[in-house]
Amino acid sequence: xxxxxxxxxxxxxxxxxxxxxxxxxxxxxxxxxxxxxxxxxxxxxxxxxxxxxxxxxxxxxxxxxxxxxxxxxxxxxxxxxxxxxxxxxxxxxxxxxxxxxxxxxxxxxxxxxxxxxxxxxxxxxxxxxxxxxxxxxxxxxxxxxxxxxxxxxxxxxxxxxxxxxxxxxxxxxxxxxxxxxxxxxxxxxxxxxxxxxxxxxxxxxxxxxxxxxxxxxxxxxxxxxxxxxxxxxxxxxxxxxxxxxxxxxxxxxxxxxxxxxxxxxx
Length: 266
Ligand SMILES: Cc1cc2nc3c(=O)[nH]c(=O)nc-3n(C[C@H](O)[C@H](O)[C@H](O)COP(=O)(O)OP(=O)(O)OC[C@H]3O[C@@H](n4cnc5c(N)ncnc54)[C@H](O)[C@@H]3O)c2cc1C
Ligand code: FES
Description:
By secondary structure, the chain is an alpha/beta fold.
């Protein structure tokens, strides 16, 4: 596992690319540690990060590393609240505080077993860097609410797409596509990240078919490094896991269910 340096770093925005309803924030990071697929960073804008009149500063927010390429780290952003909105406003040359890479990432599939990547919404981000690093070709299934969000599928290669409104690809849930793939190849290994109901659907389907699955959870976080217990989810057999240090990637077999608060923003 890559270890984060013992301090947050002030990095500069190299550029911002629009991808339908999403933005890809590209950050100069030529000397940073190499992240594992599935690891994340805690991000905060250098300026105007809360703390305006009558406001307290925001906590840093967690974002998956979507890609690390050419001396840049890439993050996929959707404006869902004050922190992501402020990060979406950043322009080239502006700076942000970055702590990471943090957490435990995905582990590679055993040789000879096909990887199926299943993503929903902004949960596609850690699957892009995973696809970049896999030695063998993976099957990619991505689900989105609508056509504008489905443009995010361009982050990965050769994705089959499902949309809730039928504007692109399969009209229905990405788990419909997964059911076909699991039936075709029960020796596959599933890697998933997305909203909690999607992750729970993936978990239940894989459990019923005895297909191993690794789930990247996105429970809200406060510290990001194990100190506050703000990110816990219940695990099988009692007790809790801290998503920031025991995850965010969790073996599906460790969970009885995916907690409603443990998914990407829907
Ligand atoms: C490991 C990890 C990786 C992540 N990767 C990404 C990523 O790659 N891209 C990305 O866009 N996001 C990602 N997230 C999610 C992101 O960190 C959160 O959505 C973050 O909270 C956004 O901050 P915000 O201030 O914009 O929104 P917040 O105000 O924190 O709101 C976030 C979401 O929670 C909902 N919400 C807020 N308060 C409440 C409440 N009281 N009750 C119910 N719902 C509420 C909001 O409607 C919104 O959908 C990741 C999270 C984790 C833990
Ligand atoms: S966010 Fe603080 S312990 Fe996980």
